[in-house]
Amino acid sequence: MTPPPAQRDLSPAAAVRLLGAWRAGGPAYAALADALRQSVLAGSLAPHTRLPSEREFAAALGVSRATTTAAYRRLREAGFAVSRTGSGTVAVLPRPATPAASEPGGDAPAPGAETLPDDGVDLSQATPPAPPELHGAFARALEALPAYLGRGGYEPFGVPALRAAIADRYTERGAATSPEQILVTTGAQHAIALLAGSLLRPREAVVVQDPTYVHAIEALRRGGARLVGVPCPADAALDVELFASTLRRSRPRLAYLIPDFHNPTGLTLTAAERQAVRAAAERYGVTVLGDETLSELALDAPDGAPASDADVPPSLAGDGTSPYVVTVGSASKAFWGGLRIGWVRAHPDVVARLARERGSLDIASPLLDQLAVVELLAQRAEVLSGRRASLRAQRDVLVDGLRAALPWDVPRPAGGLSVWPSLRAPLGQAFAAAAAAEGVLVNAGPTFSALASGADRVRLTFTRPTADLERALPRLVRAWERVSG
Ligand SMILES: Cc1ncc(COP(=O)(O)O)c(C=O)c1O
């Protein structure tokens, strides 16, 4: 196959950083090929990237040229690279033999989900299954549908009943909101991409937490952003002093933050930190885009008991008056990703502008799904109490199992969908590859970084049932023995 034109080059030093500790026992060429393959699958090595030459890569890694030559050959045979004399070796995604039948990622890319064996466990997707109430919500939505059938079905701002219900929920959380401040979107991902396209000019700086949500990194980059990462401390969702000084130095157009049960770390901004973020935004005239997709997924009360609605953090919008805070939210994690319903909360002028601009993208969101979300929001307390109970049990099986079996540092997140352990060694990439070989998919830390950091981290989601997690644990232990032994 002729190599596709390379869109970027990976320097030998960057390749070494990306892979971290890649040796996983067995022949070096096989471990190197596996680590490169896993990087492509995890999204940290973009397809159409030209890899370093065999000679330079060998020198940078401190291995023989025969090792890199054999690793590239193995990568080509697996369909993850193509080479031609003079053009070098370019990373690619293999062409599926049949049209892809796998579930598209609801979060991080589905790394090789189509190659997962029947008894495999996918801990790479932050996508809970639908709650039992979903079917009834659609049945009632169908009953409400006739009232809308006499019109064209396009509601670029969203169905009024849904805008009102979303506004009410913000008001309940302390941020007084009117329906005119709500734009219903086709998922939070669409909301982020729409805002990025609307607000950013090419090469403008956007400040992000490092790590952060992988598809936000992609959407912001696609909107032209030059990303400036603010490294998160181990025990806080944001270093607010560093955040403020970064705003002062970089004068970005936008800052993208996940304030609650952050993806991937699970950490949440304190009330004082939220206040400091709003103050910095106002001081430096920067719009802060708060992604509240995970906000409803509080799992613990402060005393460690199961969370109730009272433990859902207040909105990053505070009392709702700051013109510098725009938030996005979603029905995907509280209810179900298959709904494809999200929203933006912003000034009514911004909402009107976005409603116009979405004309070139999707025009409007699906109407029946919006009506189903109206129903689910009306039953929110009941749906969420079931959801929180199962996520809490799954989180505890995963965290307790990892803590008991592995020498890692495994924080127990107070909410959200993922665990972000420190492996205490830069083995994230190698571990993810070894876990995939054991039939368990996890994401290596650098997947979530605009700075290629997080070599010592992996993200494991707890959206699968406890029986699946229990089946995954011994395999994760075997994978760790392979890479650390
Ligand atoms: C932080 C965050 N924002 C946005 C999304 C995407 O949400 P949606 O399904 O509403 O597009 C996700 C999904 O994983 C997420 O974790």
Automatic annotation (TrEMBL):
Pfam families this protein is in? Aminotran_1_2, GntR
Metal-binding as a keyword of this entry, yes or no, is no
Q: What superkingdom does the record give?
A: Bacteria
Q: Where is this region: Disordered?
A: 91-129
Q: Name the UniProt key words of this record, in alphabetical order.
A: DNA-binding, Pyridoxal phosphate, Transcription, Transcription regulation
The family note in this entry says: In the C-terminal section; belongs to the class-I pyridoxal-phosphate-dependent aminotransferase family.
Q: Tell me the protein's name.
A: GntR family transcriptional regulator
